[in-house]
Structure formats: structure tokens, C-alpha cells
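Give me C-alpha cells for this 318-residue protein.
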Amino acid sequence: MSVEPPRLVSTPARPDDASHQASEWFALVQAGTPTPAEREALAHWLAADPRNAQAYAHLEQLWAATALLAPPKVHAPQLSRRRFVGLGVAASVAVVAASAGTLWFKGIGAPFADVRTAVGERRTVQLPDGSSVELAGNSALNLDFSATRRAVELLQGEAFFQVQPKAAEFVVQTQAGRVLASDAEFCLACDGASALLSVSRHTARVITPSQQTDLGEGLSLRFSATHTGAIQRAELEQVLAWRNGRLVFFDTPLLSVVNQLQHWRAGKIFIPDPQLAARRVSLILNLNRPEQMLDVLAKALAVRVTHYTDLVTLIQPA
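Here you go.
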């Protein structure tokens, strides 16, 4: 029986690299999709070499640090320790995440959306009413159009809307609340339970359970189902830079920078040091060269970037 891990990444397999193989097994198991044959193969792989179990345990430790990156809240059943006993590896494997959380680890957050983009992808979609939406990387959208209704649901990620004037208002539903517009252009970014609206043309309205706010051109508003922030001047050059192939950050916590990078490059980035995560930085990154973004970040900020596998990267003080 072969004990090679499944081919989950696009890069060539490296059979002699225990860390690389461990990352593939880790992603498969946490996604909740291993077949009985794969479970047996995993047990054999872990037992075949102490370095295999060591590499897998190391990934678990890294995964436990994901709280530092504040992943989106996803309601899903916990993968129980009992399940891993069935794999015959209970002594060396501890469960640390739900299956939906691992889809985030792999950059696959809403696989059943009407429209979605992969990590690093930008896509423009013409909507049935003549409006258009441009999706940033790792974003997902559901559509709900009829003769009397034009609505979308932004499940995750970021999108720029160009809304055509019609009799029915254009509605964008999010976990944080609703955005209404009839003839406007705006960018909406979802970050878990909160959202950031930036209006670049005309006006849009934000409706949450607690209040309603009209937002004019050049203004932005962060809101959630329980709290609406103060209206701010929108930094449109920064907010919309991704549409021109750039990420622009001014005086931004490094943790926020890393959270943005998760939409544009495959894999998971960890910052174990809380002080480093809170450090405020300014830099510009080229989305057309995603493989160079972390190198640019390392040089600009004088930090150490370590790639443990294709899916796991650590940023630490130099």
C-alpha cells in the first residue's frame, strides 16, 4: 500500500519532505474528507517514520496559533478526538479545528456560492440588472434577481459594486447588515462579523438591527450587527488599490496586513509574537507577483519569514 499523501497542492510533490507531506495530510483530514483507505494510509504514513509524526504534530501547534489571526467565525461541528482514534493515531494527533475552518486554511471558504474567486484571483461579473461586481481574491457571492428584486449576498471577501439605476433598490446582504443603493459605486469588505463600506460615487445606505446610516461619496463606515462605527473619510486610493493590482497599507497593524494577504496568496501565515502582530507598518505590495510579496514584506519591515511548507509560513522578529 502506498503511504503517499493526496495531491492537494499544485506544486510538485516532494516524497522526501515530511513537512510537505504532513501539510497535505493535515489539510485533507481537517477538511473532513478522508476515505477509509486514506485514513489507513495516514496511519501507515505516521508510523513509517518518526519525522512524519513530528512534522504533523508541528502543524497542529501552528494551527493552534490561528487565534492570533482572528479567522472568520464559522459554525461547524468539531472534529472529535474519537474520529482520530479511528485513524489509529490518537496518541500523536490532537484535533484543533472544525472542517470549515480548514477550508479557510486552504483558501476555500464558500464552495457552494453562485460566484466565487480563488485565492489571488480577481473577477468581474455582469449582473442580470446591468450592474457589475468585481470580486477580490477568495471572495464569494450569492445572487437573487427577479423582475422586482435585485439582491446579492456577500458571503466573504471584498467586492466593488457598480450599481445601475433601476426602480428596485440594489441590496447587498452581509452578516453585518445590509447595504442599499440605487445608482452608486462602492466597495464592501467583509471581515467575519463586521464589514467596511467605502462609497466612491453617489450614496449608499447601511441598515443594521440597531440603526440606519446614509453614506455619501468619499466616505466610509465600519459596521456590524451590534455596532456601527463613526463615519470616516474613505481612503479610496488605499481601499481600491487591489483593483489595480496593488495592496496599499499606511500605518496598518501587521496582523491586518497578513489578514489581507490571506486573500491573495495560498497557505496560512502565522505571527506568534503579539507585539510584532500589533506593529504598525506602511508598504505597497504587487498582486501580480504574489510569490514575492512576503519577500518584499521581510525586507521592508526587517522581519524573518520562514516557509515551513507550501501551506505554512511564520513571520517572526529578525
